[in-house]
């Protein structure tokens, strides 16, 4: 039996795919179809012979997945020689129902559909990917791997918002948390790097990509995380504000004569680094800051301040911390950010070795520091593949 899983991440106008060996993590091929539904969709396929790129109209997700299958046939590896075990789908919101990856059937689809109000941008696209894959691979098990599932272990005191009972009971208002696949992968990797059992280590994971979130992981179980009902809460992100006084949307709606939906859109799309520096790409923020741009300087400072505050808070939640782990685009690639975020934390046992930090080492703290500071590349595709294998009974 093969260990290969086709991992699918369907967005509203994009479809990412990856053919992953769930045991070794090796990706035999991957690809991205962007601008689905537009006249010039773009498709890049990374196969064994390099990259194949094309631009043409790809009408919908079904055509996008078909284009991916055509690319496998044309540029390799040939799927019929691979004996796929499952299709693994990234699903953003699993609500309180899904605390683990799940074999998809009509019931699961109905439940994910019920959760659309909690993730109106993401879940419909994820469902589209599932429907299409079920049609094109009718004989393969399809597994949903939820971004929220890893955080279903949060204690009640951590996931409960202090709001009226009816909101909590009737409308599911609580912290769910996201990026769970990444937090799970990275915290397991951290234990492996420390040569300790997952159950024995406490880790603070900082996932800093376009979206950013922190998680406190005790013995492999998430006990606190910064994103909430939606991915808007918590750290400063590319275009999302993260934490703010919950009265701000109502205040602005009144002041500007806007609807709450319009304000919500601005908090999701025009805030964060973009709101502060005019650029949502962290590399651009670093460039502007190096040129002395005051907005970019402030953006960097706010971003780091928020991060440091969360590290302190999660230290208190965990009591003892074995590792602080940076991951995703910013976390993996910006030594400036890592150094600035950890400044002044020596009394907590968190110290950087600047040479290691600049050199791109995995362990960037001194060997004898009480808390290891690690840089661990996330690999959500591998995590999805191995969780899918586990669901179909092929896992380790
Ligand atoms: P996504 O959340 O879309 O998966 P990524 O994990 O790829 O995002 O992270 C994207 C972010 O990482 C962007 O803000 C980008 O500027 C930043 N980034 C990528 N490379 C670097 C780098 N060398 N230095 C600083 N930031 C970087």
UniProtKB/TrEMBL annotation:
UniProt EC number: 2.7.2.1
UniProt site (Transition state stabilizer): 179, 240
Entry-linked InterPro entries: Ac/propionate_kinase (IPR004372), Aliphatic_acid_kin_short-chain (IPR000890), Aliphatic_acid_kinase_CS (IPR023865), ATPase_NBD (IPR043129)
Keyword line: ATP-binding, Cytoplasm, Kinase, Magnesium, Metal-binding, Nucleotide-binding, Transferase
Active site: residue positions: 147
Binding-site residues, substrate: 90
Annotated metabolic or biological route of this protein: Metabolic intermediate biosynthesis; acetyl-CoA biosynthesis; acetyl-CoA from acetate: step 1/2
Pfam families recorded: Acetate_kinase
GO biological process: one example: acetate metabolic process
Cofactor-binding details, from the entry: Mg(2+). Can also accept Mn(2+).
Gene Ontology MF annotations: acetate kinase activity; ATP binding; magnesium ion binding
Principal subcellular localisation of the protein: cytoplasm
Cellular compartment(s): Cytoplasm
GO cellular component: cytoplasm
CDD domains: ASKHA_NBD_AcK_PK
Reported cofactor(s): Mg(2+); Mn(2+)
Residues binding ATP: 16, 207-211, 281-283, 329-333
Family according to the record: Belongs to the acetokinase family.
The protein's assembly and partners: Homodimer.
HAMAP family linked: Acetate_kinase (MF_00020)
PANTHER family assigned: ACETATE KINASE (PTHR21060), ACETATE KINASE-RELATED (PTHR21060:SF15)
Functional description taken from the UniProt entry: Catalyzes the formation of acetyl phosphate from acetate and ATP. Can also catalyze the reverse reaction.
Family annotation (NCBIfam families): ackA
Official protein name in the record: Acetate kinase
Organism: Kribbella sandramycini
């Amino acid at each position: 039996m093969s260990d290969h899983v086709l991992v699918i991440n369907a967005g509203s106008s994009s479809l990412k795919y990856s053919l992953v060996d769930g045991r070794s993590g090796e990706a035999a091929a991957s690809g991205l179809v962007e601008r689905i539904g537009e006249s010039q969709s773009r498709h890049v396929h990374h196969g064994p012979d390099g990259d194949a790129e094309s631009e043409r109209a790809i009408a919908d997700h079904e055509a996008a997945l078909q284009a991916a299958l055509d690319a496998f046939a044309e540029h390799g590896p040939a799927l019929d020689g691979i004996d796929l075990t499952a299709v693994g789908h990234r699903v953003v919101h699993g609500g309180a129902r899904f605390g683990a990856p799940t074999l998809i059937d009509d019931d699961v689809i109905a439940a994910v559909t019920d959760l659309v109000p909690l993730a109106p941008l993401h879940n419909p696209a994820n469902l589209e990917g599932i429907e299409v894959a079920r049609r094109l691979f009718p004989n393969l098990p399809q597994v949903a791997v939820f971004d929220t599932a890893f955080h279903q272990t949060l204690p009640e005191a951590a996931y409960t918002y202090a709001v009226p009972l009816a909101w909590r009971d009737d409308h599911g208002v609580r912290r769910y948390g996201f990026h769970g696949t990444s937090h799970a992968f990275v915290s397991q990797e951290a234990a492996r790097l420390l040569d300790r059992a997952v159950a024995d280590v406490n880790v603070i994971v900082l996932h800093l990509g376009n979206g950013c979130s922190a998680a406190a992981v005790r013995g492999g179980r998430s006990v606190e995380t910064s994103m909430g009902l939606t991915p808007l809460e918590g750290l400063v992100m590319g275009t999302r504000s993260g934490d703010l006084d919950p009265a701000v949307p109502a205040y602005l709606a009144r002041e500007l004569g806007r609807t709450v939906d319009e304000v919500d859109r601005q908090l999701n799309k025009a805030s964060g680094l973009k709101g502060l520096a005019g650029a949502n790409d962290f590399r651009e923020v670093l460039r502007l800051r190096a040129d002395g741009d005051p907005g970019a300087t402030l953006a960097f400072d706010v971003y780091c301040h928020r991060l440091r505050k969360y590290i302190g808070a999660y230290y208190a939640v965990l009591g003892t911390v074995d590792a602080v782990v940076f991951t995703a685009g910013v976390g993996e690639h910006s030594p400036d950010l890592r150094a600035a975020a950890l400044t002044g934390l020596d009394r907590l046992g968190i110290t950087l070795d600047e040479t290691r930090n600049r050199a791109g080492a995995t362990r960037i703290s001194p060997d004898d520091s009480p808390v290891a500071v690690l840089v661990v590349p996330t690999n959500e595709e591998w995590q999805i593949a191995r969780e899918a294998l586990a669901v179909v009974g092929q896992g380790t």
